[in-house]
Design goal:
heterodimer, A: alpha/beta, seven-stranded mixed β-sheet, 7 strands, 46% helix, 20% strand, B: 53 residues, mainly alpha, 2 strands, 45% helix
């Protein structure tokens, strides 16, 4: 199913709520060129009193609901919309990358139909999947790494020799 | 002349190679698209436990 209308809707809601968040997980990997599928969109955000209020605004714009985390310490806020099964997970921390700022600085911006979305770097997605270590995360690591290798420019022979010596 | 039957491992090795090649091809195709065109990745919940593309 094409996620384009949903991505545009979510990016618009984030802009209207003035909430900065970085798309992570399989959706981010797909936008980064990895052939993967997913059921939901995962975001990393910096948790403050203000940003949690902005999350509620995002949910309002989407006509959705913010669910309270079952384990409050997890800092996972789930926005759900029953009518079409929309599910957005906003996390204040994830396995792997330690700081939100670092992940955000390495992220890229993708513009779809005029709306911009921050998308995590593939290296951070791989790091987070490996650190999470759940079977479903580990299962996608080989394809993530293969796509990452295909994406990365190959070092020139001189650079390769220099690295070998050094 | 009696034809030699292929061993069981031969087609399986070829199948693994074919699957590997197809995966590389899929990655190349997906990466050839502009980022804003790589949006056909969402599965849809169709029941309590099921999903579909």
């Amino acid at each position: 199913m094409d996620a384009r209308p949903l991505l545009v809707e979510v990016a618009r809601a984030l802009r209207l709520a003035k909430l900065e968040a970085v798309l992570i997980g399989n959706a981010a990997a797909a936008l980064r060129g990895v052939p993967l599928t997913t059921l939901d969109l995962d975001f990393l955000f910096r948790k403050t009193t203000g940003t949690v209020a902005k999350l509620r605004r995002v949910a309002d714009v989407l006509s959705a609901t913010v669910m309270r985390p079952f384990y409050p310490a997890s800092d996972l806020y789930r926005i759900v919309r029953d009518e079409d099964g929309l599910q957005l997970d906003f996390m204040a921390r994830i396995h792997g990358p330690r700081s939100y700022e670092g992940l955000r600085d390495r992220a890229g911006v993708i513009t779809i139909d005029g709306e911009s979305l921050r998308v995590a770097a593939l290296a951070d997605i791989i790091k987070s999947k490996r650190a999470a270590g759940r079977p479903r995360d580990l299962a996608v690591i080989p394809i993530l790494e293969r796509a990452h290798e295909a994406q990365a420019p190959k070092p020139k022979p001189a650079a390769r020799r220099a690295r070998k010596r050094g | 002349m009696k034809r030699k039957r292929p061993s069981r491992s031969q087609p399986l090795v070829a199948l693994a190679k074919e699957a590997d090649r197809a995966e590389g091809e899929m990655i190349r195709r997906w990466q050839a698209l502009a980022p804003a065109k790589r949006t056909n990745f969402l599965r849809r919940r169709v029941g309590l436990r099921a999903s579909a593309r």
